[in-house]
Request: fold
Amino acid sequence: MAAARPEITAWSPPVAGIAEVFHAHFTDHAYPMHTHDAWTLLVVDEGMVRYDLDRHEHGVLTHTVTLLPPHVPHNGEAATPEGFRKRVLYLDTDQVDERLIGRAVVRPVVHDRALRDRIDRLHRSLAGPGDELEAASRLALVADRLEQHLRDRADSAPYVHDGKLAHRLRELLDATYVEGITLQEAGARLHAHHAHLVRAFSREFGMPPHQYVTGRRVDLARRLLLRGLAASAVAASAGFYDQSHLTRHFKRIVGTGPGHYARTRGA
Reply:
């Protein structure tokens, strides 16, 4: 009997720090021993995976997070006949301190429901083009949380609020929200770590930076639509990737699509 063809989706997103996104459903595939030159951030949505890492056996359950370190041999296969469905992010080595590789070898499995949820949201933000700032913001918090776990600081690291930094970031976002700015560029300009930027802004204004930018873009789109500009032209003028990107966020915030909104003009 022929082996079942696996379901695989893979792409390289335009988000600094993520080398590859890989989604797959395997039933009978077994990975031989191999290594990656990136951190492998793995979640399993269905089934269970067993693997050997540095000659020690481990398992991946649906409620856990697994972080496999770069350059360390590992294999992998389904632990049940039904196979498994997984999502993987291959993170550049600068996302997690390489000095923590030894700790990751000893403890690759992380039991942290909040982190698992953050990774789910990160994957969703990578599903289509246009939400790179959101993906970068979510990645910064995920990578920071992973480091805290590896350093045994996940429940003890206090957060120091920085309201002045939050306001400086808002001024920068106000000046660049149409053309956009990456989180890395913002961090370089403001001399702050990515994760600290996101936390400071969220604490001060009640929303993360990407949500603020999207709101500003939707506000501009509303004004342009009421001036009679076509929705196709509004998308680019307001900083959206394309009309579909505009429609998705416009409908989520305003409650109706840009076309219907434009037709209410003068009603």
